[in-house]
Amino acid sequence: MGTLDGRIAIITGAGRGLxxxxxxLFAAEGAKVVVNDLGGDIGxxxxxxxxxxxxxxxxxxxxxxxVVNGDDVSDWEGAQRLVNQAIETFGGLDILVNNAGILRxxxxxxxxxxxxxSVIKVHMRGHFCPTRHAANYWRAEAKEGRTREARIxxxxxxxxxxxxxxxxxxxxxxxxxxxxxxxxxxxxVKYGVKSNTIAPRARTRLTLQTPGIGELxxxxxxEDKFDEWDPANVSPLVAYLSTVDCQFNGEVFFVFSDQIxxxxxxxxxxxxxxxxxxxxxTVQQIIDSAGKLx
Length: 294
Ligand SMILES: NC(=O)c1ccc[n+]([C@@H]2O[C@H](COP(=O)([O-])OP(=O)(O)OC[C@H]3O[C@@H](n4cnc5c(N)ncnc54)[C@H](O)[C@@H]3O)[C@@H](O)[C@H]2O)c1
Known about the structure:
There is one protein chain. This protein has 294 residues and is an alpha/beta fold. The protein has one domain: Rossmann fold (3-Layer(aba) Sandwich), CATH 3.40.50.720. 41% of the residues lie in helices and 14% in strands. It has an 8-stranded mixed beta sheet, sandwiched between helices. The termini are far apart. The structure holds nicotinamide-adenine-dinucleotide. Nicotinamide-adenine-dinucleotide binds next to α1, α4 and α7.
C-alpha cells in the first residue's frame, strides 16, 4: 500500500530538479502522474519535450503510471489542456503540485521590464492558471455530490520570505504565491480542497548557478554521507501534503535536508505598537516615539 494509492496528480515542471523527484516519489507511492514540463532553459527560453519524457519513462520502468504534458503552465489554454489531460487519461484529478519555475536574476537598477514580466508570469500565472482550472473541476465534482479530497501544493522560496538581493522579480512572485495559497485555502476548503506551500532548498540547476553556493553544491558528496542537498529530500513533505491524511491548510513549510519547519504566518506585534489615544498621529509624534516600534 502506498500513501498516494490511486490518487491522480499533476506535477508541473517535473522534467528536472525538484519536480522530477516529486513525480518519482508520487508514482512509487501509488499515484498516477501527469508529468508536465515545457523543457526550456533556466530563464524559460525554448522548449524540449525530452526531460518530461525521461521522467515518464523512469516511472513506467518501475511499474508506475504516468503521461507527458508539454504545456506552458502560465498559458491559460495550456493550463486547461493540462487539467483536462489528467481527467481524460486517468478519470479525475486529486492533486496539483505547482512547481514549475525560472530565474532571471539581476539587481534592481539593471533589471529590465522583460526580466520582471517573464518571472512574474511563469511563477504567478503558472500557479494561478492550473489552480483556476483545477478548482472549477473540483467545484463541479462537489456540486455533483462527489467531493474529492483534493490537495494543492505550491512552491515558494526563502527568497520571497526573507528577500534575496538580485531577485526582486522572483522574490515578489514567491511571496505572492504564499498570499495566493492563503486565499485559495480559504475559498476552496468548502469543496474539499486544501492548499499549502513549500519553501524548499536543494541542489538543482537553479541553485547550481547561484553565486556563492553553486561552487559548494558542485562538490562531490561521499557515498556513505547523507546528501543534504539532494532534491529528493524535499519530496516526502510534498507527498504528505497531497495525502488524504494531510491536516494542514493555508500553511507554508520550509524544507531542506532532514528538516521540515512550519513558517509563522504574518503577525502583528502587539508589543511593538503605538496608540494615538483616539486621535490621528502627527508626524512629529511618530518621530518622537518610533523607538517603541523597533
Ligand atoms: N532548488 C532550490 O533550492 C529552490 C529553492 C526555492 C524554490 N525553488 C523552486 O522550486 C521549483 C522547482 O525548481 P528547481 O530548482 O527544481 O529548478 P529546475 O530548473 O530544475 O526545474 C524547473 C522546471 O520547470 C520547468 N518550467 C519552467 N517554466 C515552465 C513553464 N512555463 N511551464 C512548464 N514547465 C516549466 C523547467 O523546464 C524545469 O524543468 C521552482 O518553482 C523554484 O523556484 C527551488
